[in-house]
Design goal:
Elements (H helix, E strand, L loop, with lengths): L10 H13 L6 H22 L10 H10 L6 H23 L18
Helix pairs in contact: 1-4, 2-3, 2-4
Length: about 120
Amino acid sequence: MMTITAEGSSVPGSVAELVRAANEVERLPAGEIESLLLRAATAVRDLREEAGIPGSGTERDAIVRLDIAANGVATLSNANVSAILREAADMVRTLWIVIDSGTIVSLTRSGSRNSDSS
């Protein structure tokens, strides 16, 4: 079993592992899928940090969704598990492309409505 990390040489293999699992989800035990999703969440978190992309920590945050899916994998349909694994693979791949391109994301809040005008 491959360990998903943010290191360059393992990212393509990790993406392939996630896609492969998505294609054969009916043959994988729930524990293995849970482990894949948790490792993918860690990889996404690490890659986002490296790219300078903050997480929101809400249910709309992809990392939170991956954690929720991992913890509830036994209750999900094979189709949902497959879709989540593909989403995880896409996130890891996309973030790696951003980092590999040398793009640094700088997110700042602008247009704040809370200004002291008194």
